Hints:
One of its GO terms (molecular function) is methyltransferase activity. This protein is of the alpha/beta class.
Amino acid sequence: MALQQGENRVVVNVNMMKLEKLLCMKGGQGESSYANNSKAQALHARSVVHILEETLDLVHLQPPPPPHHHQSAVFQVVDLGCSSGNNTVDTVEAIIKHMMKRYHAAGLELPEFAAFFSDLPSNDFNTLFQLLPSDGVAGVEYYSAGVAGSFYKRLFPARSIDFFHSAFSLHWLSQVPEGVMEKRQSAYNRGRVFIHGAKEATVAAYKQQFQADLGAFLRARSAEMKIGGTMFVVCLGRTSPDPTDQGGAGLLFGTHFQDAWNHLVQQGLVSSEKRDNFNIPIYAPTSQEFQDVVEANGSFHINKLEVFKGGSPLVVSRPDDAAEVGRALAISCRSVAGVLVDAHIGEELSEQLFLRVEERATCHAKELLENLQFFHVVASLSLA
């Protein structure tokens, strides 16, 4: 790993280290932290809670163990890509409450509940654990643990998990696709930091990486899930058949964020090669692209697959205040991609980059409020 020491900073060449060791949402509870910038995700999650509950209703209930049996029934739930805010805690509590209702309605003894919060090793688990309730859910305690690792690999023992939940995470690829940052390759994404508006070979590399990653995710979960278990997934999606049109993600990372990088290059603060060696590893699929991978994989049956309009990621109190809108976009962008940018160009230049994002977003506040809309692919899956 190449390190460049500077005054009060360390710059890491992101190309030379595995993304899973670095990628995480902005930790802590500061202004640009994910914990304080995930209200939109909470709103979007509430809009699809009926599909979450339908998926939970398909989980097989466990009968109580035979008399004199020393082992209790255990319902185990996992939130994959949990990050470090309240959303994951609220989701797990909602899942446990719903399953408690089902057990009560069936006249069955409640199992013990265990919740695993899983994300990459760089996730701020400390902040997350401080948010966990001390008194459980509705008076019923549940066991909790953090599991660090990539969800594109096995994380749990075979046939051990009743329910998997993953929201707003699967659009993150396991790595920047091969060739995208290599000058000699046809997929080289010259002059761009995202797939939005890129050439055909670049788009193909991103799509292939998404297909490989989702396939690996499904294989891992199919081995870990109990017979009778189910899975609920939400990820960024798009409605356009054209992969170069990444919808809300394209507007977030392919316009003002892109322009800010270009401005750093024009001012000589960052080389064009340094810019071209940074790419956001996100791919927003259509529902058909998602379905194609699930069906080709063969591990899961699709109970329901829909695209929902999630709305804007910007939560502002004064929509007519352009400065507030601009700042909201910059903070939102930084909470998601700031860690990667910091590692690539250092915190000082990162600060300059996001100031430029804010300036450009402020100038286009009205357009952003009208056009920045996220769509989500929502899937309910059972073992095939």
